[in-house]
Amino acid sequence: MAAAAAAAVGGPQPSQSEVPEQGPALDKAATAAHLKAALSRPDNRAGAEELQALLERVLNAERPLAGAAGGEEAAGGGGGPGAAEEDALEWCKCLLAGGGGYDEFCAAVRAYDPAALCGLVWTANFVAYRCRTCGISPCMSLCAECFHQGDHTGHDFNMFRSQAGGACDCGDSNVMRESGFCRRHQIKSSSNIPCVPKDLLMMSEFVLPRFIFCLIQYLREGYNEPAADVPSEKDLNKVLQLLEPQISFLEDLTKMGGAMRSVLTQVLTNQQNYKDLTSGLGENACAKKSHEKYLVALKSSGLTYPEDKLVYGVQEPSAGASALLVQGLAGAPGALGQAESSDEEDQDGGQGLGKRKRVKLSSGTKDQSIMDVLKHKSFLEELLFWTIKYEFPQKMVTFLLNMLPDQEYKVAFTKTFVQHYAFIMKTLKKSHESDTMSNRIVHISVQLFSNEELARQVTEECQLLDIMVTVLLYMMESCLIKSELQDEENSLHVVVNCGEALLKNNTYWPLVSDFINILSHQSVAKRFLEDHGLLVTWMNFVSFFQGMNLNKRELNEHVEFESQTYYAAFAAELEACAQPMWGLLSHCKVRETQEYTRNVVRYCLEALQDWFDAINFVDEPAPNQVTFHLPLHRYYAMFLSKAVKCQELDLDSLLPDQEMLMKLMIHPLQIQASLAEIHSNMWVRNGLQIKGQAMTYVQSHFCNSMIDPDIYLLQVCASRLDPDYFISSVFERFKVVDLLTMASQHHNTVLDVEHERSMLEGALTFLVILLSLRLHLGMSDDEILRAEMVAQLCMNDRTHSSLLDLIPENPNPKSGIIPGSYSFESVLSAVADFKAPVFEPGGSMQQGMYTPKAEVWGQEFDPVMVILRTVYRRDVQSAMDRYTAFLKQSGKFPGNPWPPYKKRASLHPSYKGLMRLLHCKTLHIVLFTLLYKILMDHQNLSEHVLCMVLYLIELGLENSAEDDSEEEVSMGGPERCHDSWFPGSNLISNMRHFINYVRVRVPVTAPELKRDSLAGTSSDDLGSLQNSGTAQVFSLVAERRKKFQEIINRSSSEANQVIRPPYTPKKWSAPGSAPPLTTAILEIKESILSLLIKLHHKLSGKQNSYYPPWLDDIEVLIQPEIPKYNHGDGITAVERILLKSAMQSRMNKRIIEEICRKVTPPVPPKKITAAEKKTLDKEERRQKARERQQKLLAEFASRQKSFMETAMDVDSPENEIPMEIAAAEPQVSEAVYDCVICGQSGPSSEDRPAGLVVLLQASSVLGQCRDNAEPKKLPITEEEQIYPWDTCAAVHDVRLSLLQRYFKDSSCLLAVSIGWEGGVYVQTCGHTLHIDCHKSYMESLRNDQVLQGFSVDKGEFTCPLCRQFANSVLPCYPGSNVESNLWQRSSNKSTQDLIKEVEELQGRPGAFPSETNLSKEMESVMKDIKNTTQKKYRDYSKTPGSPDNDFLFMYSVARTNLELELIHRGGSLCSGGASTAGKRSCLNQLFHVLALHMRLYTIDSEYNPWKKLTQLVEDMNSQLGNEEQQPEVPILYHDVTSLLLIQILMMPQPLRKEHFSCIVKVLFTLLYTQALAALSVKGSEEDRSAWKHAGALRKNTCDAEKSCEVLLSFVIGELSKGKLYCEEGAQECAVVSPTAWSPESMEKYIQAFCLPFLRISSLLQHHLFGEDLPSCQEEEEFSVLASCLGLLPAFYQTDHPFLSASCLDWPVTALDIITQWCSEIRSFTERHAEQGKALLIQESRWKLPHLLQLPENYNTIFQYYHRKTCSVCTKVPKDPAVCLVCGTFVCLKGLCCKQQSYCECVLHSQNCGAGTGIFLLINASVIIIIRGHRFCLWGSVYLDAHGEEDRDLRRGKPLYICEERYRVLEQQWISHTFDHINKRWGPHYNGL
Fold first, then answer.
1. What's 812's DSSP letter?
2. Which of 298, 504, 1332, 1650 has its CA 20 to 30 A from that of 1307?
């Protein structure tokens, strides 16, 4: 059937026989060659037709996919669709290659690749680089290869993980500077590439169009319209999976290079090809069907196909319109058609939006065509259409992007992309996977729009800007709701609904991002700014956001549901409004661009006017409402600022009339007042989210698009409006008007009393900020940067990255290189010092910090800037605390300072009017009133209020009005004094103006009334008073209303009205039970100056404390700055102000002097009423209580601290008794233990034992010791692998298995120690508890539901006292101290007697003590110790479960703990002393437990090594006789330290000192013999004969037994009887020591051989008998330890050089016993000489364990490991990690490498560290610690240049090793303190 269908189209066809249906590959190749030949002929029509026919048949869309998309059954039966497709692909490959091999063809094409561009395309999560120094576009990125091959040293680059995918820009000079190109792409190589031969790609030109058409047919076939809004994503994915091979084939073609790409471009863009193949006309049913599907898909997408309207009878546009509205897609063509005809229209009545103005676009039809018409003219266009339909499959995206290096394609593709832009938006809105889709869209668009040339071209040819703006507008129109701001009923304004998915999920992001991207190009931005129609549309778009997310204050109930929509609102304003604004602003920097600014400002004001009309705004904002979103205001403000700052425009030419200014200031001012309300907890019923909004509004990423423009706009309004109007508006908005009265009582109609104080503080603080902030009023960019940086550093020390983050940069990320990254560094070094990261002993890691320099605190600390920039109020306090500390430290001021006053930069002339606020009567009246109230102690005033009042006065003095030089101000006639408060508006003269009487409205109950009636009668006549300057009632509100009327009516006649309209409370005041008001007259008789002087007295608490400084030193008035006054408290501030006012005016100076002369009487106390007194007392009491509480807390803290210090380090004496039993106190009969749970102290008894809190952990640290000092490096190339054969653990393993091969198993297990790997380490914090108390403590932990960081079921807990982690309790053996004296006295028994005693004591079988609580606990702790480590680290015996295993394990536990302590002491005992480890050591108790258990096993007296050591055994031969059983291990092969532990633990405890010394002496003789034997093996044959000879000469001297030479010669003699020194071995060994052995070097070797034993013995002695270790030099260590152990005779002289042999004390004749020992070896070496020799040389000189050495630069690790494949699953792991102990590469969390439910890291931590693993996570640069079943993030040992970690490599800056940190890590590993120092542990459930 397929062939028949194909025949219908292809025209004349060859018969079936000619073209083999499905021949083998050979036939394909032959056919291909034949066709190629046919096509190469000049007349190739026949060949072309033949090929067409073949392709028709092979590439037939009917066959393979028809079943797959329609239903599953096809895939199941009939071989599946795969076979046919593969066949088709094979055909294509053959045909392309024209009969040759496909691979050769690829290679041939590649040869013609002019690779000028890299163009490598990557997908998400790829590691790429960005260099800001080389980038022209901020989106520039490079693949790792190009980056490392280019030269970027010293550049500002970082590495990043791609989020959306990207492409490498190397070689593209539009996007990056050529200096940054890599070596491969530097050469413009197009010149020297030969021309492509015509016939090479000829076949491709014929085959590819059919192939691509086939692909498109598949896509058409596979697409089914999702039914009823449920997209069948499954189906789509299925189709895509089936098409994977085809798309991959195309992708491979693009990778063949430029030649193939240009063929593909021809195919994709050729319109004729497309028309011929896809028109769907003609008789072919299949093609027709396919074309119909295509049209259906178009139609269902709400798109029309222009020409076919009539053919298919689709009635556009009306049918489309209804369909669209049903689908809920706004922007239907029909709707728009109506919009053009009528201005008002009902848009989507379902939403109930009401009427509103509709956008009129600049040209009538443009809009509709943008949104709804798509006509495809080429394969490329239809391919993109389907790519969008299928929601951007990754493969398709990669294919389309891989083609981009072809310039012709790039242009065509960009135009196609723009043409489909509206369709992309519609698909995105419907998509369920909008996140993924967004990333894919941006992946494409960023490649297209970052290129300025291309963007400009598309803007000109395809109306790119119109399309983008329209599409954005349409997108937002689908989620509009009616605005409820101001006038809820009649508002015509609509805003976006922030709760809609579109905004909540940030779906608009890709479109906005593209828009910002193209606006970063100057040529495009200029077109935008010139096009008035576009600007109107854009302002219309911005107005959708104006007033969104309105908050209404909840007055009664707490809001039920806290909406979180504010995130969406802030993000939308920042991304959709502010960032495009910053993009546009960046192009308005010079004079020539003035016109653009005028355009924007003009349309912005028009939009604002429309907005005010739409919300019916008159002059009062609606109460209890606030929106933080006023983008129109902010556009207006920012363009004004730019115009004045950069474009030299006249500000007034851009400003509207006064009425508009009044309206403009209302909403920003409302926000400022709301901020104060929110911080005063007035919005508390709205939930936490309202605080979140207030914080976001000022937060560093938002502040310069939000609060800064708002404050600037208010500054502009203030500088142009009447100052009295402005000031009164402020106090009215902050609702504190009623508070500003002279009366001591008032009634506030709009504010609760408890909020008054903070609202007043808010109002004054706002005024201070408004008047002192200069961000947009004339500061240069560098000054702004400096001020921001100082403010942030004053709050806290900051890291470099957090500073970068906190300093508000121009928030448009696309605006190019960060503004001033160079100036950033230079400013930073000017204002701050770097504090390198320090390490606290607690192990908490510090980052490198910057801290302000001293002179910054002295001169630049600006509290105003700090207040403006703090998100949390506590940061202001923090800054003040740091400032206080600085002043104390530098000795500038001892007390609690006030915020310093900082001189301001001068204003830009355009804004001079702002200072009129400081010189207006309204402000002066407010200041006077507040000073008076503070002096009179009225309630609700705080120090902060006074501080701000003084700040405002000082600002006024600094910025005195120019107009009237105040000396000659006449106290003019009544017309000057229309307001009887102050004569003029100049602060300097008003300061000295005395106010005598004030008339106030007070509640009837006020105290003033009673007093004033008397005053009234005593005075002459009230009427006469009236004229002598009694002030009227002062009403701010009336004042403001009047001004507003004035401006509206433009009438000046009312300006001089003296009568004030009475103040009426507003209609929405709370219906409080206000007492009726009446008028009273207060006698004041003060001026601002006199109030200040009295305040000085009040603050200092002394009468007449103020003395004008200029009376002593007239110079004071001339000096500009007096450092004395810069820093201080209120008193200093008052003095500074008085001095300034005296400097500015002689009259003020005179009046100050006068006031000071009059001795002012104290303020009469009678003014305080009882009620006020009560509140004052209450306040005072509260204050005292607070202070008391502070004191108590401080005391408690210090007590706790001192307790911690003693508990953690210096244990109290009674705790030390069990550790180091004091010999001098015989009266103490028994050790006393304090239980930290029940607090009782007492001895540990059999039935109520006490125990030490201990942590048992398995450790393999010992096993990591190596014998060479050369540190192992972390492998960073394939060659450097690490093999652990030279570690201590490996060597011991080899030794044990060697012994087990030749000797009896049970004897082998006594000859060595285990525990080098997986040994159990026991540590304690030194605290004790009763074991029964501990059990109940564990019960309570078990019932505690709180999630702990440890597992109680595994017995884990924290010490109840010091909270140190622990998991067991070690019982304390009840010992009495009296014995200690007995067994420490030296006795005079001979060595022989002692040897006998030891033997007898060992012979006694140790019965297990009766079943007491103590013995039970000892058993259970032994069980714990065994379970601490894995079975494989306990069982070494060949017969599993043999008791020898336990025996070996137990003494090895002792060995492990001693060896580890030795390592903690640095590997030697030179430092001596009882180090801290000693204080907290639990070895004594551990020994008791081990000894108790070891005594249960008796060693047969036959086999007890003690016999062999101390007696000569007669029948040596019997042993050798029985050959069939394996012999015992010869005593010379025994490990002497193990023997020591066995001997001691086999003795009954407590042990006597003399027995201990005896054992050590005996063992030393064996050790010495071993040393001689090893030495003899090491020497050469000549050495041996020389030694033998030398010894023989001295054999009969008196001290032969203590002579090294004698003994050595004897040993050599004995051993040479066997085959030990066979020749072949000798040569090997000779190589070892080419130097001749001198007596010194021999002595040194022997001492080194014996030292480890002496060290362990001394430690043991120290723990068992509490003797101190002496400290010594390194070279004396041997002799000191020997004498300490009693090996050296007491009378030993130290004059001649020390010889180790002098320590020998032989129990029997030396030569005899040596003979006996050597004979055991001799029988063995006769058979196995090599092994015999190996076993003799024991390596005992282990170096301290170390972690691997890491490279200096992190990048070397990262580049090698992040692409390295896992050895188990050969995939590249998602989270690669590397073990820092052994260098193994592992997958973190990798499921591929799981074994029995253990992931690889956990498994490795068990194998490598017995449960402790230290891993470096490659992709995060962090170190993770696994300890048993828990893990924690440790931190990073790699820091950047500023001393900071970069977790997860987010910043991607170069990182360097921090040696100190690595040392800390290593120290914690060696000392096993991970559990104690790191606090944040969590369970890993074996999943790491």
1. -
2. 1650
Is 632 or 435 the better-scoring residue by pLDDT? 632
Residues of the chain by 3-state class (helix, strand, coil), percent to 5: 55, 5, 35
Are 1451 and 1545 a contacting pair, CB within 8 Å?
yes
For residues 1550 and 1861, what is the distance between their CA atoms, to the nearest angstrom? Answer: 44
Instruction: Answer yes or no: are the C-beta atoms of 1326 and 1481 closer than 8 Å.
Output: no
Distance separating alpha carbons of residues 800 and 1840, to the nearest angstrom: 10
- Amino acid type, 1089: L
Q: Which tokens in the block code for residue 283?
A: 């008789």
Torsional sign, CA 1378, 1490, 1265, 842:
negative
- Helix 285-300 × helix 2-10 angle, to 10°: 90
CA distance 157 to 152: 8
CB 1875 within 8 A of CB 1365: yes
Q: How far apart are CA 619 and CA 622, in angstroms?
A: 10
| Residue 175 one-letter amino acid | V
Is 1548 exposed, middle or buried (CB count within 10 Å of its CB: 0-12, 13-18, 19+)?
A: middle
CA-wise closest residue to 1710 among 1566, 1853, 1878, 1513: 1566
For residue 877, pLDDT beyond 90: yes
- Any idea which residue has 């890299």 for tokens? 118
Query: Of 152, 154, 128, 1821, which Cα lies nearest the Cα of 825?
Result: 154
Q: How many angstroms separate the most distant Cα atoms in the chain?
A: 143
Average pLDDT over residues 1414-1421: 88
pTM (whole model) above 0.85: no
- Cβ–Cβ under 8 Å, residues 1259 and 1321: yes
Structure tokens given for 1112: 């002593």
Cα separation, 789 vs 808, whole angstroms: 10
C-alpha distances (whole Å) from 1398 to each of 209, 1394, 1653, 1657 are: 100, 6, 20, 17
Q: Which two tokens stand for residue 1282?
A: 């690490």
At residue 1188, the pLDDT reads 75
Tokens representing 1645 are: 């070797």
Amino acid at site 1812: T
Contact 795, 878 (CB under 8 A): yes
Strands 480-482 and 127-131: unpaired
pLDDT in tens, 112-126: 777 678 888 988 888
Nearest C-alpha neighbor of 486 from the set 406, 569, 546:
546
**In sequence order, which residues have a C-beta less than 8 Å from that of residue 965 and are 6 or more positions away?**
none
Whether 1057 shows a pLDDT value over 70: the answer reads no
pLDDT in tens, 695-718: 999 998 899 899 999 999 999 999
3-state SS, residue 143: strand
Pairing between β-strand 1838-1839 and β-strand 1856-1857 as defined by DSSP bridges: antiparallel
Which H, E and C letters describe 413-457, residue by residue? HHHHHHHCHHHHHHHHHHCCCHHHHHHHHHHHHHHHHCCHHHHHH
> DSSP code of 1035?
-
Q: How many CB atoms lie within 10 A of CB 59?
A: 25
Q: What local confidence, expressed as pLDDT, does residue 839 receive?
A: 66
CA distance linking residue 1557 with residue 1389, whole number of Å = 12
Distance CA 1154, CA 1090 (A): 10
Whole-angstrom Cα distance, residue 1540 to residue 1549?
15
Q: Span 1257-1280, mean pLDDT?
A: 87
Radius of gyration of the chain, Cα coordinates, nearest whole angstrom:
46
Nearest to 1484 by CA among 1464, 1461, 1500: 1461
Each residue's pLDDT tens digit, 989-1016:
888 888 888 887 777 666 655 544 433 3
- Please enumerate in sequence order all residues whose Cβ is within 8 A of that of 1274, keeping only pairs 6 or more positions apart, or say none: 1748, 1749, 1750, 1751, 1757, 1778, 1780, 1783
- Selection from 906, 881, 904 nearest residue 794 by Cα: 881
**What is the C-alpha end-to-end distance of the chain, expressed in Å?**
57
> What's the mean per-residue pLDDT of the chain?
78
